[in-house]
Amino acid sequence: MADSDQWYTHEFPRVFQASRSGLEGRIASAKTAAQPNPNIVNELAQELAKLNKSLADANNKLPTYDQRQYGLQIKALEAMIEELREASKPKTKFAFRRAAPLENSQRPSVVATPVKDIATLSSNKPQHTLLSSLSHRYISLTDLPTSGQQFSELAISGLDHCIVNLTSSTRQNDDIIRFSAVHVENLTHTVLILPMINGSILLHNLTSCVIAVGCHQFRMHDSRQVQVYLSITSHPVIEHCSEIGFAAYPDILKQLQPMNGDSKHLAVHDFSHIRSSPSPHWSALSNDSVIESWPMEEIHGKEGVEEALSALIL
């Protein structure tokens, strides 16, 4: 029995995390398909069921804290597979069209579905807006070619030395863009100011950035030196991250769009530190390092953006 207990103490965490990481990687790979294969989704669900059973079998031999952490990871995988299952369902065919180029050459290049095509989509078919491959810019809602319309999902990638402010200066519901999910990857030295997200925000590979967002689910992977100003009703999750600081969503942004419920921005789960001791990868931002003045007004020119960033990113 002693040998068995020792295996669950020392070996089970390694085996479980290896299986979980492999499964998450396969889910991420399946999501790259335009329409995931339902057979693959079923296989992933079966693998998750096996992993869940192994945890259930081990629960009475694991510390309570570890049981809770592993259970949270199982739930996160379940949500990812359910999202994949929805994406694998047959979709009504429609055509994406490239938006006409903006006359101002300084405007960022943004691609979105034309407004007249939106009416052909059912309410559960996501519309994607892409904001990518920009540097030394201040980007606001007016830089989206269909500003004033509502989107389902937003993708932001490949930004360097940018300030992105997608909050609205008005409280009129008709003028507020609402996103159900935001996917962010490959950002460096960038400030991202977002309103309340109706669903989740997923972040990958961020370096020396500042993020302000309200959401229901927050997941960050493979990132370092990031300040996160967050309003969230569930536990934020980080993995393979370092030097992450968390603070409450700024009051000045709450005035533009109030947040719902009590925030759990300091109840962070670090999937790379499944131990009872505090994670070395994140901490609460100290009062003297919290940003007080946010760049809510548009900044013109590379030099102006650089100057603003130097005051915001430590």
UniProtKB/TrEMBL annotation:
**Keyword annotations of the record:** Acetylation, Coiled coil, Cytoplasm
One example of a Gene Ontology biological process annotation: post-chaperonin tubulin folding pathway
Recorded GO cellular component terms are:
cytoplasm
Keyword Cell division belongs to the record: no
**What single Pfam family name could you report for this chain, choosing any that match?**
TBCC
Instruction: Extract the GO molecular function terms from the UniProt entry.
Output: tubulin binding
Subcellular location(s) of the protein: Cytoplasm
Principal location listed in the UniProt entry: cytoplasm
Similarity comment text for this entry: Belongs to the TBCC family.
- Superkingdom as given in the UniProt entry: Eukaryota
Q: List, for all copies, the residue spans of the domain called C-CAP/cofactor C-like.
A: 108-273
- Per the record's keyword annotation, is Acetylation included, yes or no? yes
Task: Tell me which InterPro entries the record gives.
Answer: C-CAP_CF_C-like, CAP/MinC_C, TBCC, TBCC_N, TBCC_N_sf, Tubulin-bd_cofactor_C_dom
Q: Which proteins does it associate with, and in what oligomeric form?
A: Supercomplex made of cofactors A to E. Cofactors A and D function by capturing and stabilizing tubulin in a quasi-native conformation. Cofactor E binds to the cofactor D-tubulin complex; interaction with cofactor C then causes the release of tubulin polypeptides that are committed to the native state.
Coiled-coil annotation: which residues? Answer: 41-87
Which protein is depicted? C-CAP/cofactor C-like domain-containing protein
Q: Which organism is it from?
A: Amanita muscaria (strain Koide BX008)
